[in-house]
Amino acid sequence: MEKRLGIYIHVPFCIRKCAYCDFYSITDFSILTAYTDALIAQIRAFRPLARGYLVDSIFIGGGTPSVLPARQIGRILSALRATFRVSPSVEITMEANPGTLDAENLAGYREAGVNRLSLGLQSADDGELARLSRIHTRRTFEESFLLARLEGFRNINIDLMYALPGQTEQRLADTLSYAVALGPEHISFYGLKLEPETPFGKDPTIASQIPDEDEQYVMYLSSVHTMESAGYTQYEISNFAKDGMECRHNLKYWHLDEYLGFGPAAYSFFDGKMFSYARDVERFIMNATDLRLLFDEYTVPSEKELAAEYVMVGFRLRRGIDVADYAARFGDDFDARYAKKMKPFIDRRYIVKTPEGYRLSLQGMLVSNYILSEILEF
Amino acid sequence: MKRQEKIRNFSIIAHIDHGKSTLADRLLEATKSVSTREMEEQLLDNMDIERERGITIKARAVKVSYEASDGEIYDLNLIDTPGHVDFNYEVSRSLSACEGALLVVDATQGIEAQTLANTYLALENDLEIIPVVNKIDLPSADIDGVRHEIEEVIGIPAEDCPAVSAKTGLNIGDVLEKIVTDIPAPSGDEDAPLKALIFDSYYDSYRGVVVYVRVVDGSVREGTKIKMMNTGAEFDVVEVGYMSAFGLLPAKELCAGEVGYITASIKSVADTRVGDTVTEVERETDEALPGFKEALPMVFAGIYPADGAKYPDLRDALEKLRLNDAALTFEPETSIALGFGFRCGFLGLLHMEIIAERLEREFNLDLVTTAPSVIYKVTYKNGEVKYIDNPANYPSPDEISLAEEPIVKGNIITPTEYMGGIMELCKERRGIFIDMKYLDKTRVELHYILPLNEIIYDFFDALKSRSKGYASLDYELDGYRESKLVKLEILLNLEIVDALSFIVHADKAYARGRKIAEALKENIPRQLFEVPIQAAVGGRVIARETVKAMRKDVLAKCYGGDITRKKKLLEKQKEGKKKMRKLGSVEVPPETFMAVLKLDDE
Q: Contact at 8 Å (CB) between B599 and B457?
């Protein structure tokens, strides 16, 4: 049987960097075409390795993929189809920023095969958006969202953020009800994390303006409640979807399934190896097909490491760990390995027993780092 | 000329930062012992920690040859001295191995308490003192002012003393000439029985203990049967020699007046106590040299391995350090909170910090160090007297008929503008004012009687912060004084943590208890449950804080690339957790035990 594979395409271009974001991107658009060419060359170079795989998800992320004209997106997807066997029911997600979308390129993306859009709203408050140095307002977002609907996108995700500097519970609640009212199929809901190499991370005044642990606790719980009440089921710590609309691609990460990344800074877990490419577009363009010159990390994780990573990502999911699946994949007895370590957490109901295995309760998800660092051995 | 007439033995006295090591380097360089290129910065201080802290911990010595302007070649023996009050005794022994001392004073700063204390020690040892005004290259140098101050404060002529820049090498020749002309030559009896002063020793894994001596009378060579007069230990000499700038240089013999080393297959520095007299077994000298003292620890603390399994490693490491440090004491101790560790005795806080740092650095151990304590003297109702160095063993009030604490004579020198703040500090620290003396128009010397336990808690920091770093302190132990002492206990999650309890004056218990509770709250991370912190005296809670329960981590996203990052983050978190100590059910970072000491009052 063919193995399933997810493909990730990195588009490291942004009109401007957001103050909090540490994903790799540059603002020089003069090399867009050269970059697309390099990507295509790299994809084609994988042809010998593509045998035996069926691609059932493609995720074009960034950066801001929607700075690429539809024609370039079409070329990339064609190259993928020419190289890999792609499932007829493939999920093809593209991230897009409001303000870069219009009817024409939306139609073009759709025509190229994109069937899921992920739109970054982050906040419905224009003050907060300006603070994050986003390129759009609430209004431009709304226009983009409605245009996408008109152009036939039936599967749209909205990205939201909480724990923003100066954010109040009320303003977050407004953002949530606004997003829910638009009726997307999927909502990603992230806590802001201060990354050291970003303007936010470097600004010493930001940390003190971020809601404290107790405020964030309330923000998180009330937001989960709002989304669940509106029919968005939490299926991962930060992800909510209407029934059947979970993001297939992201689930691969949380199931520790195979994924192959293209582009600078892209990560892969492919054929038992984990690797990533350097955060350097020019180097990528020059050496797109000579992977040795691009690797940033390259490891062949042991079975034991993989098993631990499986647990790490698996506990992010609402359904938690399936001990039978764990045993089948790693030949290891989950209960024997973890029961003792989980006990204090089970006693306090941070971890809950399920028919298939174990999952974190909502309280447990809130302190998942703590729990995972307690029970995991890498 | 008789051989002793061409020997000069001297030390350098200086306050930290006044340029002692730099001057020593320049002297070595000027005598061509070391070429500038080969010379490592600050040759005499050859331990890492010393270099980082800019202080000399253990005495070192070096012999150089100098051709003076009279055309004769002289052997100059420079005996370096530790520059901190914790090592006062070692300083006095180093000084007594010399006939003279250079008193280095910073031309921009003037005399400091430490310098003064060591100068008095030198004068007590009848040393010829040569003032040297240093750092004259700095724009704010006040050469005449400092000379005047030396004459005024110490009462020795300084009118024509060398004024140098050790940094640039300016006028270093003047210093060397002064050493030759002003410092008396030794005048021992070369035919008398051997009498040599031990001023330092260290353990070397190949030679055994290398003993640094100043031969006063007689001579010593390979095969001499020697005896340490105070410890009574006897050895056969394997080798004698000199300390050159490049290392040990074997010689046929060491004679009266000379400074050098002896090796004799000695296993432990405990047999070669600083200040002891070396003589011959066959022909013992009549009288040991005066001034020998057993190095007595004054400050005690529990040292525990952060990882309980490392207990044997810690023991081995302490034993190794003790080979080289007779002042370090330790014995096994058990704490309910911390498991197995050692109660260690130190000369002072600096000594303690150095030992802890060496254990961590050289032996790669993660340690938990408890609050330092002094030795309390407790007379029980049944008449029994006990000295208690561990607060955990302090008896309950109803058993005590008299509690006494060690006190020190403190000597603080400060610019007059900070005098008020410092007197206030001394008062807060229960000091008793004795008297004061104006050194000049701008600086004053204050004399206080202070409880030692007030000095070991951040007194230096407080002194520095109240004087913008200008005030300096020197102290010596002055016996015991009756005191209203109570045991302050700390409870975490309603359980007493023995390692956090300590003895405090009754009047200060409330304030200190509150500060400790606050400091603990700052230091203890949130746990999965709420943790009450209480400070109690005699079972009565006097302060309370609460560490709230952990409610939420940073829930970062976790996609492809983030998996690696997430893993690293969890690994880091796990590393951090490994270092935590479990006190009952509460996890506490190891720094907590020391952090509760840093209770700066400003």
A: yes
A183 conformational bin, left if phi > 0, alpha if psi -120 to 50, beta if neither: left
Digit-coded pLDDT (tens) for A115-146: 999 999 999 999 999 999 999 999 999 999 99
With CA atoms as reference, report the closest residue to B108 among B136, B127, B82, B88.
B136
Question: Which residues of A are less than 8 Å from B527 in CB distance?
Answer: none
Structure-block tokens of residue A253: 């990460």
- What residues does each domain of chain A span? 3-254, 304-311+321-375
From B552, B564, B571, residue closest to A367, measured CB to CB: B552
> A179: closest CA among A227, A219, A221, A211?
A227
- In sequence order, the 6+-apart residues with CB closer than 8 A to the CB of A30 are none
Separation CA A245–CA A235 (nearest Å): 10
Chain B: residue nearest A257 by CA? Answer: B560
CB contact under 8 A, B551 and A367: yes
Contacts of A135 (CB under 8 A, 6+ apart): A15, A16, A97, A98, A99, A100
Identify all chain B residues contacting A261, using CB atoms and an 8 Å cutoff.
560-561
Nearest to A366 among B551, B566, B577 (CB): B551
Q: B560 preceded by cis ω (within 30°)?
A: no
pLDDT digits (tens, 9 = 90+) for B23-49: 888 888 878 664 444 445 444 545 555
Contact A254/B at CB under 8 A: yes
- Tell me the chain A residues in contact with residue B577 when contact means C-beta distances shorter than 8 Å: 373-374
Query: What does the pLDDT look like over B542-580, one tens digit per residue?
Result: 999 999 999 998 777 888 778 888 888 888 888 887 778
The Cβ of residue A296 has, within 10 Å, a number of other Cβ atoms equal to 15
Q: Which residues contact A361 (CB under 8 A, 6 or more apart)?
A: A349, A350, A351, A352
Amino acid letter for position A357:
G
User: Whole-angstrom Cα distance, residue A216 to residue A227?
Assistant: 16
Q: What is the pLDDT of residue B367?
A: 87
Please judge whether B558 and A350 are an interchain contact, meaning their C-beta atoms are less than 8 angstroms apart: no
Interface predicted TM-score of the whole assembly (ipTM), two decimals = 0.84
CATH class of A304-311+321-375: mainly alpha
Q: Measure the CA–CA gap between B292 and B21, rounded to whole angstroms.
A: 27
- What gap in Å lies between CA B297 and CA B326, rounded to an integer? 10
Is a pLDDT exceeding 60 seen at residue B57? no
Structure tokens at B571: 């690994």
Q: How would you classify the pairing of strands A239-241 and B259-263?
A: unpaired
Q: Note the maximum CA span of chain B.
A: 87
Task: Give the tokens for residue B118.
Answer: 């060591």
User: How distant is the Cα of A226 from the closest Cα of chain B, in angstroms?
Assistant: 18
Angle formed by the axes of helices B113-124 and B143-154, nearest 10°: 50
Q: At B76, is the secondary structure helix, strand, or coil?
A: strand
Architecture in CATH for domain A3-254: Alpha-Beta Barrel (3.20)
The chain A residue lying nearest B568, using CA atoms, is: A378
| Total residues belonging to chain A | 378
Are A365 and B567 an interchain contact pair (Cβ–Cβ within 8 Å)? no
* A to B CB pairs, distance under 8 Å: 96
Using an 8 Å Cβ cutoff, are B475 and B455 in contact? yes
The predicted structure's pLDDT at residue A318: 96
Indicate whether B198 pLDDT > 50: yes
Q: What is the mean pLDDT of residues A181-190?
A: 97
- Which residue's entry shows tokens 């638009």? A182
CB interface of A with B, residues 291-310, below 8 Å? 297, 309
Chain Cα centroid distance, residue B68:
36
DSSP A317: B
Q: What number of CA atoms fall less than 13 Å from residue A95's CA on the CB side?
A: 20
Q: Which residues of B touch A265 (CB under 8 A)?
A: 561
Q: What does the pLDDT read at residue B327?
A: 83
How far apart (Å, rounded) are the C-alpha atoms in residues B507 and B494?
24
